[in-house]
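User: Fold this one for me? It's DUF2848 domain-containing protein.
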Amino acid sequence: MKVIKFRIEEGAGRYTERAITINNLVIAGWTGRDTVAMEKHIRELEELGVKRPAYTPVFYRVAADRIGAAPSIQVTGEESSGEAEFVLVKAGGETFVGIASDHTDRQVETYGITVSKQMCEKPCSDTLWRLSEVAGHWDDLLLRSYATIDGERVLYQEGKVTAMRSPQDLLAQFASRGGQFEDGTAMLCGTLAAIGGIRAAQAFEVVLEDPVLGRTLRHAYEVETLPVVG
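Assistant: Here's what I get for DUF2848 domain-containing protein.
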């Protein structure tokens, strides 16, 4: 399990602090609402040797202590990369929305997707919104990520959350596969294609923007690469 001290945004610059225990961490894969865009991402991964999924969406289980709001992570070798995903968190019978990065070891992904998801931390924002506050204008939300590559900060991903299935749809799909989105569960919910292709970075920033209510969630983290010696 992992206890994270979140801030719940209440509006008008007000926040409520809340410690939430994460007991279950789920990574939803191939969640595209737009089948053309999803196919592009599948082909993108196929170029790296990742096999096509047997069905979509797929729900991978990852150790709960992989998620957290730390400003830096350590990875093994040069083959990992981040990707922006909205995250759903259930606590006290209520569902919250945050922003996270499904940082993944791409080399391991070529022979074991579930293992590759387990290899890396899943950095997330320490601020959450109530899903009920954005559900009415969900399709207006925007996802972005920025990567620092060779010292240059570049736009890495950008698009509306409409690229992915809606929270309600994803949770229904999860339930149909026997999943239970109960208190203490966090679910990362899919990503966008990378602009210029998937590649490693020295730092990564993920952003979820709500243009209707005029607010933004973001999290940035440094990536420390550990050497591979055998």
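One thing worth pointing out: The chain has a mean pLDDT of 94.
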